[in-house]
Amino acid sequence: MEIPPRAADGEPGVAAPDEYETVDLGVLVVGAGAAGARTAVELVEQGVDPEEILVIGKRGHGDAHTTWARGGINGALGTHDPEDDWTVHAADTLKEGHFLNDPGKVETVTERMPGLLRELDDWGMAFSRTDDGEPDQRYFGAQSFRRTAFAGDHTGESLLNTLVERAQGLSVPYRENVFISRLLTEGGRALGAAGYDMDTGEYVVFDAETVVLAAGGYTSLYRRHSSRDDENTGDGPALAYLAGARLMDVEFVQFHPTGMVGDRYGEEWDGRLVTEAVRGEGGRLFNAEGERFMERYSPDQMELDARDVVARAIAREVREGRGTENGGVYLDISHREREFIQERLPRMYERFADLGVDMAEEPVEVAPTAHYGMGGVRVDDEGETDIDGLYAIGETMAGVHGANRLGGNSLAETIAFGQVTGQAVARRLADDAGGSDDEAPESDRLHDRARHHFADLGRLAGSDGSHEPEALLDELRELLWEHAGLLRTEAGLAAGLEELQELRRKASDLAVGGPTSKSFEYALDLGFGLVVAEALLRGAQERTESRGAHARTDYPGTDPDWKRNIVVERGSVGGMRLTTESVGTPSEAVQEALDADHELDYHQLE
Fold first, then answer.
1. What predicted TM-score, i.e. pTM, was given to this entire model?
2. Sign of the torsion formed by the C-alpha atoms of 256, 258, 262 and 268
3. Is 195 inside a domain boundary?
4. 207, 192 in Cβ contact below 8 A?
5. Would you state the pLDDT for residue 12?
6. Does some domain include residue 179?
7. Residues identified as active-site
8. Which residue from 294, 296, 314 is spatially nearest to 304, judged by alpha carbons?
9. Cβ atoms of residues 450 and 184 within 8 Å
């Protein structure tokens, strides 16, 4: 997005570019959800002085998207199914990702998770329990065994509370309501970051030896999505890309089968997630004609087949006229006892009760909703990007999920790579403890870049153009929903790219209400969103096959030659350049688990 060429210095409420706060530290963690919190905890446990760390968030402390992950967190504990182990978990993850995952990253997550779940248990996480006191585990879609540990249906909230309490006990510093708008680099090395205090409008420079991006994904760029509108707008991937890092797999967007839909819920709840735990506890899907339609699409795994399979089945039912008036289907768990639903799904039960729906007596109306971006920043085995000293983890990174994410793996990834990256950064800081001779010149370059960026922010904050940023964000969401949604075509993707160019033109002529206004935040969100949307559209256009969450109706088959990752980088003249990379091979142990071909049988639930 081009910053409008209007002078802002001296305008009321707009700071001059050389008026800013400077914060010196060893590690800046951008994002205060589970990934960022777990990284900070690991840093301290590895001996890093808490005063060298700062975790920043765009919202209040403890208010992060992690709390919206309700259904569970995967780890092969075997509390119900002792034959499960981490290699089977890895095999399930690779199969669900249609073998576009990075096998090394998958094995990093799955091998660590049993121990990390035990660690969370030791830290006091409020897991639901088996009769003998072990963390309980439930089925999730496409999992061979019951391996999704949970805390009722508020697992993410309980997880984040546990991590925040742990971090506070270790005196990890935290700063809320700060928006990072630019990463500052020099010669392929991270110098720090620049942003502003969202309460005061004051600029802030973070002079950091390392930066960890844990800033979420990009599914709020769709009209129907399971996030809050001001989260998951592509900040992390866009910040990294604009700083010179590469993106990967951005075309793969998971549409969760069961988002809320229907007039009775109201616009506020449209697209919000109805957790997979409802189906994991036996919930059934019916079309408007009362048919349990998954029998047609997946008679063995039924409602617990892979998310892409169930989402496309719902879309087909609606497209062929068997959906509800609101374009959805029904999810029914009323055959379960009321006490069971209240115990296992307390948040869902309470939410729908507040909306006048008794889940113990009647079904709820659902339809697919944009839920998770499998793509993100391309990183190495420790989470480091192409930029020296810049790391990306959680939904900001790519590699673990491939073409489709296994339910319950998002929280698992945040915890596992929080630990991995925390350990790597701690080693790095220890190795660099002696300092270097060019610290002063690096600091000069950091501040020079920051002042240029703040001048741009000042122009943006003072712009009085023709278009409201929030309205353009809504246009972008509609564009991606229509042209890069659940079903895609060459014509639709090409039209989306054309419309994106027009949207960019409008975005150069914004009306912004000053640095503390919501419109200023939306303007920055829009700039990030335009970057990620282009990468998504171009990647989807390039991938002439259907695989996992990427469904091309003009290329319905999966092409073995497309078992490659699409990588996006900045071209020499500013445009996007797309290349492909081969996928690695799993370890011998995981290959044995793949060859064993374990698979969930839904009818074990009945």
1. 0.91
2. negative
3. no
4. yes
5. 42
6. no
7. 256, 279
8. 294
9. yes
